[in-house]
Amino acid sequence: MPLNFDKLLAAIARHAQTLTDAGAVADYIPALARVDPSQFGIAVAGLDGSLYCAGVAQRAFSIQSISKLFALTLALQREGDALWQRVGREPSGTPFNSLVLLERERGIPRNPFVNAGALVITDVLCQRYLQPERAVLEFIHRLLGRSTVAVDAEVARSERAHSDRNSAIAHFMRSFGNLRGQVGAVLDAYCAQCAIAMSCAELAQASLFLAGDGCQPRGARVLDPQATRRINALMLTCGAYDAAGDFAFRMGLPTKTGVGGGILAVVPGRMTICAWSPRLDATGNSIAAAAAIERFAAETGVSIFGGEARMPDGGRTG
Ligand SMILES: NC(=O)CC[C@H](N)C(=O)O
User: Fold this and answer.
1) Which domains does the chain have, with CATH numbers?
2) Could you report the per-residue pLDDT of 186-236, keeping only the tens digit for each?
3) CA angle centred on 23, ends 19 and 28, rounded to 5°
4) Which of 52, 56, 65, 277 is an active site residue?
5) Would residue 136 show up in a list of annotated catalytic residues for this protein?
6) Residues framing ligand 1 (Cβ under 6 A)
7) What is this structure's pTM?
8) Per the annotation, where are the binding residues for substrate?
9) What's the rounded Cα separation, in Å, for the pair 311 and 318?
């Protein structure tokens, strides 16, 4: 029987709203701690152009590490497979900002979604673009087909002023020769990119190429199918840091999280889902957003591991 996605998302939002008291907002970036933590939003974007929303799905929030998806895609467009000589493809089993593996593994980060890996990706973009954060922003504008997205300058400044940990990671990798540019310039670009503000609806729509085997719905090719599938594989195994196994178990979908409280999930061949709520668990992942995506997957049956999914009336979203 087809599902009514509007009703489903409204029910999910009502339930998620009751979970928004649990956890804590990220306050190691002071500007992030100023957000109202009781907010929840969810958006589902289909490859057929459909969009379903509930809660504050149109309100912009700090995308933080979800930006690593766009930076990685841009770097892959430019560098291709050469990128994998400088960054690995293994889950780290460590927090997103950990340094511990870097010494043993000689400055090669485990994957592009931990901070160390994302700093290498930013370094690649710094070699390619005079204003790398602009390049990431313009790339997002091309994906969306509109220029509605901006960097939140206050969040960028706030993170840059408190970036000792990322600075240490960058210097350490540079000592192994795996960072080519100046640490200061890489951190400027990285903090600005993390401070991009987008809504659930915008994030879901901008990342549809990940569900579309590398193509946005209006047909533009962003990335070749193999590279796109590999990004999805990395999201499944590394997108939620040391909670990636738990996320794969609970949701059965590739996901990417950020300490702003956003979580993006991909249903290959069909749709993307983005949920947002600022309070995080100990691994830095939003509690209410994770619960919402888990429930959406359970109620619709979407999973990359098989089964019949229940789609909306009229068969929209693929
Ligand atoms: N997990 C995250 O979202 C971390 C991003 C954040 N800008 C940091 O570097 O700490």
Assistant:
1) 5-62+197-315 (3.40.710.10), 66-194 (3.40.710.10)
2) 999 999 999 999 999 999 999 999 999 999 998 789 999 999 999 999 999
3) 140
4) 65
5) no
6) 64-65, 96-97, 115, 159, 166, 194, 258-259, 284
7) 0.97
8) 65, 115, 159, 166, 190, 241, 259
9) 8
